[in-house]
Amino acid sequence: MAGSSLLVLLDDIAAVLDDVATMTKVAARKTAGVLGDDLAVNAEKVTGVRADRELPVVWAVAKGSFKNKCILVPAALAISLVAPWLITPLLMLGGLFLCYEGFEKVAHKFLHTEEEDAAHHEDLVEHLADPAVDLVAYERDKIKGAIRTDFILSAEIIVLTLGVVANMDFTTQVLVVSGIAIIMTVGVYGLVAGIVKLDDAGLYLLQREGEGAWGRFQRWFGARLLAFAPWLMKALAVVGTVAMFMVGGGILVHGVHALDVWIKQGAGIIGELEMVGPLLAALTPTLAGILIGVIAGAAVLGVVTLWQRLRAA
Question: Which residue segment(s) compose the domain that 32 sits in?
């Protein structure tokens, strides 16, 4: 009897772990859209500090991110336990914020010229070179700003994850949400550390001595890394912005049942077209989500801008 009870217990544990693994994979795919923006934003936040202080700054922000998760995860689980009906409205608010943030980036890109961005960069360089500037205070402000940004992005990740496991038992919710919080924090800041040091690695290889094939390869690879680093930052920003519209718009579509049904019906009609029908039908929900995300982001940005002007008047 004792042996059979132990086997039953082990089977139950295995079943729970299997559910946790499955739901964690689903949640990771759902939150991957925020990951690109998270990487780009946090990598950008730690730029402008001295090269020898980049990794300590990343570590300080990572510790702040863990503290954010320690606040957000229990709060999200408490909401799921006490008021589960709040999950959908919170998801919708998170989706709207993603769309707003994405459209704000697009608007900034089109409303500011390259000359203005270059002038801003020069001002930043001159500011940092000024001996009167307190670099310790500047670094501390950078860290605080990055941690505040992380709190918002972490809240989006936690709410998205909670939406995935909303119908699961509480134990599974605890394990999946906690697991995603840890995986995302370690993954994001590990990658951020690699990204911010990519140019340093390239410079190190470029300065390597040696006349053999290996030495020439190291210098060639270092030059390629130096050229690739700024391109990677720009690519992350673009991919992250598109992902924000895709994820945010997708949340809004699923939150409005009639809109979700209408898009699925449209995809079904498109799927009947010859040759390209199945491909277009598969792409329709994603493209519709991006379009709705852009429209929603523009609307929220318009409301926020109007409110700011009214307050300033």
Answer: 2-233
